[in-house]
Design goal:
There is one protein chain. The protein is α/β, with parallel strands linked by helices. It has one domain: 3-Layer(aba) Sandwich (Rossmann fold). The chain has 8 helices and 11 strands. Helix 1 packs parallel to helix 6 and helix 6 runs antiparallel to helix 7.
Length: 212
């Protein structure tokens, strides 16, 4: 089972690495980071580098795509090389998925036309312009279309666990959860727009202006 995670300049690291930590542990799976050209790229703040293992055209028929987000997705929405690869690969995937603003690229490729989908809360308006119907859900599934979208950053782990269940079974998914000790108990309860106080929302907007 071949799992492709596209990476690109100014992606959000956890959008890719969170699902990677779950899916790379599945039996008989191979995971590859794909991109425009082999070599290192820098994530959204420039501090962290990730390596492209294969160019897009070398991975034409992955079983699963996990498209991460980050401010770099805006350029990809106009990148016909990426969009053409995504459209072609989706024809034969078992699942085509996104995390955070990776949904914008799926939308730009025409994969979300008329479908409910989720992304980071700050990008609902952009997602809607691609023809999707943004919803404030952590994970949105269209199993008949083989498409799953996840909201911001940490929801990619939730989505990957659901993928593990769909690809193998629920016991495998729970084993992955245990192996990465994913048992969230955050010290605050401000993880959604509806829960955040005004001052928290203002600070979040300030911090995320150039990130998503």
């Amino acid at each position: 089972m071949l799992i492709a995670i596209p990476i690109f300049p100014r992606l959000t690291a956890l959008d890719a690495v969170g699902p990677y930590e779950v899916l790379q542990r599945l039996p008989d799976s191979e995971l590859v980071f794909v991109g425009h050209r082999p070599g290192n790229i820098r994530t959204d703040n420039g501090f962290l580098g990730l390596a492209v293992d294969a160019v897009l055209e070398e991975v034409r028929a992955p079983d699963v795509i996990v498209f991460p987000g980050g401010v770099g997705t805006r350029a990809l929405m106009r990148d016909e090389r990426v969009l053409a690869w995504l459209r072609q690969a989706h024809e034969t995937t078992r699942f085509t998925t996104s995390v955070c603003t990776g949904a914008l690229v799926l939308g730009a490729a025409g994969l979300l036309d008329g479908l409910e989908a989720t992304t980071h809360w700050s990008a609902y308006d952009i997602l809607e312009r691609t023809g999707a119907k943004p919803v404030a859900s952590r994970v949105v599934e269209h199993l008949d279309r083989r498409i799953i979208t996840a909201a911001g950053v940490s929801s990619g782990i939730d989505m990957a666990l659901r993928l593990a269940e769909l690809l193998v079974d629920s016991t495998a998914a729970q084993a992955m959860q245990l192996m990465i000790e994913y048992d969230p108990q955050p010290p605050f309860d401000a993880g959604g727009v509806a829960k955040a106080e005004k001052a928290v929302m203002e600070r979040a907007l300030e911090y995320s202006r150039k990130r998503y």
